[in-house]
Amino acid sequence: MDLPAGVLSVACVPSQGASRSTKEALSPQTDTGVKVPQQLGKGPSAFIPLGEILQEGVESSLRQLLIEAFVSAGRVDNITMVMGLHPQYLSSFWKTQYLLLRMDGPLPYHKRHYIAIMAAARHQCSYLVGLHMEEFLRVGGNPAWLQGLHYAPQKLRNLNEINKLLAHRPWLITKEHIEALLKTGENSWSLAELVQALVLLTHYHSLASFVFGCGINPEEDQDGGHGCWPPSPHSDSSPASDDSMGGSGGKDAMQEVEVLMERMKLLQESQLEEEGVTQEEMATRFELEKTESLLVTPSDIVDHSLQSNVLCFVEDPEFSYKDFTRRGEQAPPTFHAQDYTWEDHGYSLINRLYPDVGQLLDEKFQVVYNLTYNTIAMHCGVDTSMLRRAIWNYVHCVFGIRYDDYDYGEVNQLLERSLKVYIKTVACYPEKTTKRMYTQFWRHFKHSEKVHINLLLLEARMQAALLYALRAVTRYMT
To answer: What percentage of the chain reaches a pLDDT higher than 70?
Structure first.
């Protein structure tokens, strides 16, 4: 696969210069050799001070990235700036998104952007809806389609049901949903087209989680600010993340770090000493964690009436995430991860039907799962693999996926309640995320560490939904 050389090494760029020209972006240089366009507004995030983003992200290969970002996309958006706190991940993310939107594939370019709009609208993410409305027009899309789903071709409208399920309850997807799309006469999808659509839908559902989870602000040049919803009704009254450790809260926040460090140490020691937990006990611990997750719900009430630029792309707006299992209801069967894995099943299916994207998705999953700086708050030289695995597996747990060889007791030991509330909210109903939720967990941790959590959430959520969708495709094919 031949991607432009620049796309392979994208890092972070501190720029809000979406409307600036490439020439201007590359004009008079600073001490680092590159002119950094000045921030005009509040910064890329409502949760993270601008100084944190520039300070932590400014050291990466800026000259190369300025050229790449402006030449390939004409802008350096706020998502890129925040992701740039983790350049290795951003490089992998950009390669994947570039392939999905700009390289050869079964779907024409304008339909790809329309699918992105449909996906983002499910989570009321007007930031992404606005960006892709612009892109849709830029690549020659019919402006009439932007009046709403009812103006789009029936073939695209047929995606509505699977879009809805992927966004909110992916465990309900069956081979019948796949069959309905592939056998609808003149409006039928080919398998290759459908797989690209499924990847696009899950990509943008998950990216909406990142937008809300990190409080991404509207772009300066977006018409009227097609931003995400104001991230919190408490934004003005909540303590800013960077000074939330002031006063008496500082000692408590430091204590949280020490408690987490001690629990990780004890778990690592017990793993060395114990012969192992029985399969029955492992199953019980998963069921306990799954049941307890029913009680982990946000207390903040965020009532967003849908904006017209989003509502017109949504059918059945009341349909939303429903806990995988509730007492008194018929629960769907648990998805045993080993029965349909990404490595053995999903990866090869995607690569067969949509070459190259499987490899890039796999790289992206691996990069974020293994990403570490061996630090926790003010501690260095820490093995964080246990914590990263607990976060990843908890996301999969709330979507009904169980790893039979994983002890879910670790989740309860390592993830405090406020962190669980944040994870579940961002992964399952991101539009309800507030600044208060962001500031209340891990109060003594760096912003870059909280962004790292959001990257884990993005990818774990995307993989979970893809596994359900691809399993249905496999069942249809066999």
So the answer is: 71
